[in-house]
Amino acid sequence: MTERPPTSRLQAPRILFVSTYPPTRCGIANYTHSLVEAIAQRRGSAAELGVVRLLTPGEIPVPDPMVEAYAGISNTRWVDHVARVARSYDVLWLQHEFGIYGEVGDRALRRLVEKVTTPIVTTLHTVLRRPDPLQRELTRLLVKRSAHTVVISQAARRMLAESYRVDPTAIEVVPHGVHHLPQPARHPGDRPTVLTWGLLGPGKGIEWGIEALSHLKSLDPPPRYVVAGATHPQVLRTQGDAYRLGLEQLARDLDVTDLLQMEDTYLSDDDLGRLLGSADIAFLPYDSTDQVSSGVLVEALGAGLPVVATAFPHAVEMLEGGAGIVVPHRDPRAMAEAISKLLTDPEALDAARRRAEAVGETLHWPVIAERCEAIAASARRSSLIRTGPADRRRGEYLAPGRELGRP
Known about the structure:
Rossmann fold
């Protein structure tokens, strides 16, 4: 084992991210992977970046040069190990989403933020409008113990102030990043394409989108509604494909099967680029009224796609400048009217597309990486505590019920 020399204040800070991470299939894993990749590209090296990959029961550690350690989340024993590993870094950056730390997640995070001596930055991917007392207390603790707290939207910042009594000046707003995709020539053909994508499961509101199709059959030509994405792994484990099968049955009942195309696949970047390049409108009919972060929304804007979305906070915020239309939740007729307006008014569609492209340019990962680098540097400067360099063994794994060791 080798010791890591102290970092000069002139050097970029060493950052250890705690998060789910590929090959885990979830939005937080994809977000962290993209952020780490963007920071590494900005620096020209990934040498001072590391990841603690959270593993759910049954997941297997997969060797990855970015992974500093693996942590099985079915108990809290991984916390002591992560606190030790963090001593080799200047900043410990937590990605927080309810559920990714497991059933004992609240207890684990409490122990971690109380034990670690490295300055902490926390990204809160979800801020609940009506948290229960334990959720409110944990969120407040994370904010209190973090040198900086990051949220994805202004809506999340306001919610922290209103529902958690957190000083909004302590919160940094850094949008979700998006990969730059070259804008292909659009060839919609004879039928325009309306696109929904992402991991599938209850709450996505696809049933309302399918019902909206029944009000669009009279358009000439009628749109093609593409729903692309595999069933969310957690949903698949607990409910199987009942949601997808129910959607297919609904399409048959409403006689819109010829307007609906469901693609049951986990989308690669190339797949997503192909779909975005062929679409005319992005459609987000989500059920949630509290959603303050949507990776799909920023992917749509990054691709210059006009958006029709339900009135969840992130959509209201991002579309207020004209990049799309916000509609009421669970209202298929209003959804159909918004889609019809864009598809039957070329000037309105073009104006929304231009606005989406302008917003998307501010969301590219290199821009987001620069802002995150500045936050990490500030977190390092804000701490007066400096510990000596610690030994490290990249790829160490604290499995449930086991002592520390390699997988």
